[in-house]
Structure formats: structure tokens, C-alpha cells
Amino acid sequence: MNRAPLKRSRILHMALMGTSDPSGEAEASQGKPFLLRALQIALVVFLYWVTSISMVFLNKYLLDSPSLQLDTPIFVTFYQCLVTTLLCKGLSTLAACCPGAMEFPTLRLDLRVARSVLPLSVVFICMITFNNLCLKYVGVAFYNVGRSLTTVFNVLLSYLLLKQTTSFYALLTCGIIIGGGRGYPVLDGTLFGVLASLCVSLNAIYTKKVLPAVDGSIWRLTFYNNVNACVLFLPLLLLLGELQALLHFAQLGSAHFWGMMTLGGLFGFAIGYVTGLQIKFTSPLTHNVSGTAKACAQTVLAVLYYEETKSFLWWTSNMMVLGGSSAYTWVRGWEMKKVQEEPSPKDEEKSSMGV
């Protein structure tokens, strides 16, 4: 019964620490022909791309569509958290009613656990709020650049909080990312993107810290995180006047509007699952490479879809940011491989003794 949560915990540990999972990979590949494994990986990567890109375009529509004219970014985020909470509880109930049909942890609201997860929830709501505000004020094509400083903040926070140093080559790739971002004027959307990047880095650190409170289960963490977020968003909705703005919203009774809002919540729930799935079937390094490639495809799709004309400087800045992100991923992968190949002190001691 505890096998699934342990696997999900291992996947999250891989994503945070940037290490591979040889036992998981061996288990996944054992007894499967190469063609079947290749098709599985291709399907999982395709699923991740479709879910991630669809979610970005859908959120852009909800946050900044001229046909909707809905200026309530906090409410959009609150509703997506509410949908995720209800989905988690629904799947937990379904798994309890049909134990043989599916596996999902039992979810019961424990206020003590909710308090333990609260610091992460504060970072979480800042992350998704700044993320949506960035998307509201910038185009989809620029969105990845606005969010590009996550890598830089990961390096900075690793040094400040964990006292982990970074190699010269990795720092050089961070310089390329920062240099690419300087090709854009300072806008509100860029500021929100920088803040979102900072919160993404903090979210990874706090996730690792809080996981033991939920027995290492990503689904339990998702449930408590979104329950806390729903409660914390309520005073923000009142203070910022978004509830009053909703009362005067022309399409409040539209089935199309609520359908799109619910679809956005479904994509928000699905992205966490497909991200873990991609890491499980490939590796954290491949997941990062796939994410960078997806960002390139998303940028090009946005320019074509919105029929935008971009300058040479714009494209150069994009390529610097995405190229720097790819180079950082490659450098970190090369460093991890080098560490794994180096013999440990114990192995060297055994070989010198002739054991």
C-alpha cells in the first residue's frame, strides 16, 4: 500500500536534487523491448508538452483576453486551486470505494499537518500569483524569458541557504541567461516574472523541507497546499476588490466562461502529474532538456498564433536565455556524471588493500 507514495517521493527527490534513480530506471526498463520503451517515453514527453503549452495559452486567455475582459488574476488562481483540491479529494474517495481500480492516498484534513505545510503554502500562492501576473502583462512568447531567472535563483539560494557552491562553467551559463534577459525593457510583467522565478526556487526548497509532514506523498502535499491556498486567497479577494469586480462581470453566468475556468484547473492539476511522469520515465536531466525545448516551441507557436513581428534583438535575447538554460542543464548533467564515475574514498581504500 505504501509503495506508490514512496515512488512519488523518490521522483520529487530526483527533481529537487538533480540526481538519477538507477533502481527506478532499471525497474521500469526490465523486461521491456526497446521499441516499447521508446514509444512510452515519446508518449509521456508529448503528453507533458501538450499539457504545459495548453495550460499557458489557456491561462493567457483567462487573464488577458479582450473577449472576456476579466481583470481578476487572484480569483482565476484561487479557482484553479479549488479545482485541484476537489479533484484530489474526489480521487481519494474513488480509490477508497474501488480499492482495486486505482491507487490514491487517503486524504483527511488534519489541522496540525495543514499548519506544518503553511510556510510552503505562502510561497506557493506567491509563486502561482506572480506567475499568472507575469502571464497577464506579457505575451506568451516572452513568458519563458520573464520566468528564466529560476536557474539563477536556484544557484543563489543554494549558496545562501544550503552553502552549496557552483562551478565556474555553471556560473558562466547563468551569466548568459542574465545577459539575454537584459535585452528587454523593464516592465511590470518582467518584474512579476523575476518574483515568480524567486518563488519557484523557494518552493523547491520548502517542498523538500515539508515532505516528511505528509509522509513523503506528493498527492497529500498537493491537497494540503491547495487547501491552505484557498483559505489564504479569500482575504486577498476581498482586499483587492476582485469579488466586487466579479459581481459586475458580464459573463459571470456564462457556461463557456466556467467551462474554460474549470479546464484551466484541470490542466493545473494535470501538470504536476505529467511532470512527475516524465521524470519517472526519463530522468531529471532529460526533463530539464525537454522543458527547455518545450519553451522554444512555445515561443515560436505564440509568435505564429498571435501573428506578431519580433525584432532581431528580441530573437537574440530569447536564444541567449534558452541557450543558457540548455547549457546549464548540460553542465550540471556532466558534473553529476563525473561525480558518479569517480571512485569513493572507501572503494579506493579497498582497492589499495587488495580487497
TrEMBL record:
GO cellular component term, pick one: membrane
Residue span(s) of domain Sugar phosphate transporter: 40-325
Membrane topology per record: Multi-pass membrane protein
Residue ranges crossing the lipid bilayer per the database entry: 34-57, 77-101, 113-130, 142-161, 168-184, 190-206, 227-249, 255-276
Keywords noted in UniProt: Membrane, Transmembrane, Transmembrane helix
UniProt subcellular location: Membrane
InterPro entries tied to this protein: Sugar_P_trans_dom (IPR004853), TPT_transporter (IPR050186)
PANTHER family: SOLUTE CARRIER FAMILY 35 (PTHR11132)
Stated name of the protein: Sugar phosphate transporter domain-containing protein
Record organism: Cnephaeus nilssonii
Lineage: Eukaryota, Metazoa, Chordata, Craniata, Vertebrata
